[in-house]
Design brief:
10 helices; elongated; 185 residues; mainly alpha; Arc Repressor Mutant, subunit A; Rna Polymerase Sigma Factor, Chain: A
């Protein structure tokens, strides 16, 4: 099959073809390289690791191509982005350990934010939003909601009062909502 003919095929068809003909996978790389790079830069900022993360994502997609199943409401695109976000978040965790906190994350927002984030996909999404927030606010949300740290412990860690922690979390939730709405629009 000629390269031009592949461009008319769906992402899912190309993925399935690439299992038997690895060269076909190049079409998916052409389609998703730039959007993936932009997504990772949007989460981590302009870091040198961005290209490596995208390359690792494509390797994971290719290696796991046989596991992809077409389901209603689940496209290759959503599956690919899920792998990209998981890979990005794994790198984010490593960067956070080596660089220190990379985080830059009101009533209706407070109620909308879960008490504890346990779903990996949700955790990845929340972490990506937190990286786009002012560091102090993002850190408060991360410690409380992602790490499950009580407000009293956060106050001790940050050297501030519990009421200051509550205020930060309240403001951070408002900021989270603003950042989240920008991402989704």
């Amino acid at each position: 099959m000629k390269h031009e003919e592949l461009h008319d095929k769906s992402d899912e068809e190309i993925l399935f073809l690439s299992v038997k003909k690895p060269a076909v996978f190049e079409v998916l790389i052409e389609r998703y390289q730039t959007p993936f790079l932009n997504k990772v830069r949007g989460i981590l900022g302009p870091r040198e690791e961005v290209d490596d993360i995208v390359q690792e994502t494509f390797v994971k997609i290719y290696v796991n191509a046989g596991r992809f199943k077409i389901q209603q409401g689940a496209s290759f695109k959503s599956w690919g982005y899920k792998i990209l976000l998981n890979t990005t978040f794994s790198h984010y965790q490593k960067l956070k350990k080596s660089d220190g906190a990379l985080l830059r994350v009101e009533k209706e927002v407070y109620e909308a934010f879960p008490d504890k984030v346990e779903d990996v996909e949700t955790y990845d999404f929340v972490a990506s939003v937190l990286t786009r927030m002012p560091k102090q606010l993002g850190r408060a949300l991360k410690l409380h909601f992602l790490d499950g740290m009580p407000q009293k412990e956060i106050a001790a860690l940050e050297g501030i009062s519990i009421s200051a922690v509550k205020t930060r979390i309240y403001r951070a939730k408002r900021e989270f909502k603003k950042v989240n709405s920008k991402i989704n629009n």
